[in-house]
From TrEMBL:
UniProt cross-references to Pfam families, sorted A to Z: MTS (PF05175)
Upper lineage: Bacteria, Pseudomonadati, Pseudomonadota, Alphaproteobacteria, Rhodobacterales
Methyltransferase small domain: residues covered: 44-138
SUPFAM superfamilies reported for this sequence: S-adenosyl-L-methionine-dependent methyltransferases
PROSITE patterns registered for this protein in UniProt: N6_MTASE
Protein name per UniProt: tRNA1(Val) A37 N6-methylase TrmN6
Length: 264
């Protein structure tokens, strides 16, 4: 199924829009056929958020809304707000909310210049999947939408600062990022928030973590906590073209379960 591209040429997908299933088909998500496309990362981020019904959630850089929609599917009764700088992706996020019958407000704005009404609000949770790649050591993507989503134009510390400002007292900030950026993320979180936790995501047992989820709390005083690594794939190598997710990760991706942590 295809739909017309979003109208803004700066951020619009270059070709058609596809409609993809998430959480075993419970969610339908429209996103660009080319450029930045949501994968498992926003689903894992949503699965890590310790939200409860009645709480408020803000996502910085929400893209087409995948993480917020997955979180809303797991925890009914949340107040969901997204901020997205790219007009085409913000429009798709609103479409996806309507498509799935989810109440979600999407503001088109740069996180460094949030609308006045958002600057007056505080949230129980702020989540983000910031651009992974520093362009001081990597090549920009040719697709504009993908580059804005993946190339770090706004420093990681700024993402954390904005998240901290928008948090209510005792609120949680949750980030997913590449493992090699963990020192930068920890430094930024420790300067603004407390009770920092790290969840390493391992491609396979015995492999180094490729992604990490970091969580911190406004006003938190607990000691730093490093969780046991969560293994994504079974076996020691990729076997043909079959799905190889471990059972707990399959439950997250297919059933919308919370991310399992051994210590919990």
């Amino acid at each position: 199924m295809t739909f017309p591209p979003a109208p803004d040429p700066r951020a619009a997908p270059a070709a058609a829009i596809t409609e993809n299933g998430f959480l075993g088909g419970r969610l339908r998500v429209r996103q660009p056929a080319r450029g930045y496309r949501a994968g498992v990362d926003p689903v894992l981020l949503a699965a890590s958020v310790p939200a409860r019904a009645g709480q408020s959630v803000l996502e910085l850089g929400c893209g087409v809304g995948t993480a917020l929609l997955c979180l809303g599917a797991r925890v009914p009764g949340l107040s969901l707000t997204g901020v997205e700088v790219q007009p085409g992706y913000a429009a798709l996020a609103r479409e996806n909310a309507a498509l799935n019958g989810v109440e979600m407000v999407v503001e088109e704005a740069d996180l460094a210049a949030l609308p006045p009404d958002l600057r007056q609000r505080r949230f129980n949770h702020v989540i983000a999947n910031p651009p992974y790649f520093s362009r001081t050591a990597s090549t920009p993507a040719q697709d504009t939408g993908r580059e804005v989503a993946m190339g770090e134009a706004t420093p990681l510390a700024a993402w954390v600062e904005v998240a901290a400002r928008r948090l209510a007292p005792k609120g949680h900030a949750s980030f997913i990022h590449r493992a090699e950026r963990l020192p930068d993320l920890l430094a930024a979180l420790s300067a603004r928030l407390g009770s920092v936790e790290v969840i390493p995501l391992l491609p396979r047992a015995g492999r180094a973590a490729s992604l990490v989820i970091c969580r911190a709390r406004k006003g938190g005083r607990a000691a730093f906590r490093l969780h046991a690594g969560v293994v994504m794939h079974a076996g020691d190598r990729h076997d043909e073209d079959r799905e190889s997710y471990t059972l707990p990760i399959r439950a997250v991706l297919r059933d919308g379960a919370a991310l399992p942590l051994a210590e919990d």
